[in-house]
Design a protein that fits this description.
Keywords: 4Fe-4S, Cytoplasm, Iron, Iron-sulfur, Metal-binding, Pyridine nucleotide biosynthesis, Transferase. By secondary structure, the protein is of the alpha/beta class. It has three domains: 5-126 and 313-327, NadA-like (Rossmann fold, 3-Layer(aba) Sandwich); 133-213 and 336-358, Rossmann fold (3-Layer(aba) Sandwich); 216-294, 3-Layer(aba) Sandwich (Rossmann fold). Helix content is 39%, strand content 15%. Strands 4-3-5-6 form a four-stranded parallel sheet, with helices on both faces. Strands 8-7-9-10 form a four-stranded parallel sheet. The longest helix has 20 residues, at 339-358. It is globular, with a radius of gyration of 20 Å. It binds 1,3-dihydroxyacetonephosphate and iron/sulfur cluster. Iron/sulfur cluster is lined by residues 101, 126-128, 154, 213-215, 241, 276, 310, 312-313. Residues 101, 126-128, 154, 213-215, 241, 276, 310, 312-313 line the site of iron/sulfur cluster.
């Protein structure tokens, strides 16, 4: 029997076979642990199936290390959500296996409706997406017709279809700064912490949806200060979905790829990292001489000091990847009627960031409220 549990403001139907952490929200339908022999055999099966099915793996930094390593080893990618979208759009493979959460698979489908997009578990969602239902979001937009609608990638296809611009945490600052430079007022959704951070940094006029990431929202500034005292030379790297008092303690604030870049480039040997602990795999393998500590999510009396792992990212596993490749199950569907409109803000973001990267003038910065 399924149970409805409340994750902060959001009710979510917990899958029947899910596990529940009794002290915190960190439950998930986590794939069963595989033995070494099973892991090796499943990886071989996936390598073979990827070739047979003309498929490529697209993994996020928060998923299991096996899914990150195998993606890279087989010519796929492990990256942040922005580069996942770009890679999936540009790759010639007919099938993309997206290991991450649902909005990442939907974005891939919107950008490449002709491709098959498979995901290990279609229930892998996101509290930001869940907390921004299209009917209420539409009403919010209707109440602010004079504002340019900027939405975070962690949203449904329907919400994207209501937006003028899409952003991820790696380009939100640049895009909002440019919109502000054009005198535009912003309607922002759904992550309030990221929105607050962007507003503080850019001074843009923003009205805000009240959403949060259940993982990053848990980081604790007071506990982080204690950890900093234990490691006085450590630099603090923070994902901007974290609360403002945690961001205030950061030496660098950035998306998952921004955090990796900072760890590589900063002149320090120790780092405290406030993001999902799936990041630790890449941080440690790419920086073997450096030390990484997880930022605390719990108070002093707790036995478990940090449990920053997204329950939905945890649903992705090797067995699921092999199974969907074998059977074609779990193909992402997006209503074809909304794809062209949902694609508009994504294309704008990808064109803007590509231009920014190559030093070209950034395109598309014209008022387009209500664009069809
Ligand atoms: P990035 O865009 O930084 O990869 O973040 C996606 C996400 O879901 C963070 O919680
Ligand atoms: Fe969503 Fe947070 Fe999970 Fe990222 S870590 S997918 S923002 S719930």
């Amino acid at each position: 029997m399924n149970t409805t549990i409340t994750l902060k403001e959001v009710d979510y139907e917990q899958p029947a076979e899910g596990g529940v952490c009794t002290t915190r929200h960190a439950w998930a339908r986590v794939p069963a642990e595989l033995s070494q022999a099973e892991r090796a055999a499943t990886k071989d099966r996936i390598r073979r199936l990827l070739k047979e099915k003309n498929a490529v793996m697209v993994s996020h930094y928060y998923v299991h290390p096996d899914l990150q390593d195998l993606a890279e080893e087989t010519g796929g990618i492990v990256s942040d959500s922005l580069e996942m979208a770009r890679f999936g759009r540009d790759h010639a493979a007919q099938t993309l296996v997206v290991s991450g959460v649902r909005f990442m698979g939907e974005t891939a489908k919107i950008l490449s409706p002709e491709k098959t997009i498979l995901m290990p578990d279609l229930d892998a969602t996101c509290s930001l997406d869940l907390g921004c239902p299209i009917e209420e979001f539409s009403a919010f937009c209707d109440a602010h017709p004079d504002r340019t609608v900027v939405v975070y990638a962690n949203t449904s296809a329907a919400v994207k279809a209501r937006a003028d611009w899409l952003v991820t945490s790696s380009c939100a600052l640049d895009i909002v700064r440019a919109l502000k430079g054009q005198g535009q007022k912003i309607l922002w959704a759904p992550d309030r912490h990221l929105g607050d951070y962007i507003r503080r940094e850019t001074g843009a006029d923003m009205v805000m949806w009240n959403g949060a990431c259940i993982v990053h929202d848990e980081f604790k500034a007071f506990e982080l200060e204690s950890l900093k005292k234990e490691h006085p030379l450590a630099k603090v790297l923070v994902h901007p979905e974290s609360p403002p008092d945690v961001i205030a303690l950061a030496d660098a604030v950035g998306s998952t790829s921004g955090i990796l870049k900072a760890a590589r480039e900063m002149d320090a040997r120790e780092f405290i990292v406030a993001t999902d602990n799936g990041m630790m795999h890449k941080l440690r393998t790419l920086n073997p001489g450096k030390l990484f500590y997880e930022a605390p999510t719990a108070g002093n009396s707790a036995t478990c000091k940090s449990c920053a792992h997204c329950p939905w990212m945890a649903m992705n596993g090797l067995a699921g990847v092999a199974q969907v490749l074998e059977t074609g199950a779990n193909a992402i569907q997006v209503d074809p009627a909304i794809i062209p409109r949902a694609r508009l803000p994504i294309d704008r973001m990808l064109a803007f960031t590509a231009a920014l990267k190559s030093g070209q003038p950034t395109p598309g910065l014209v008022p387009n409220i209500g664009a069809a």
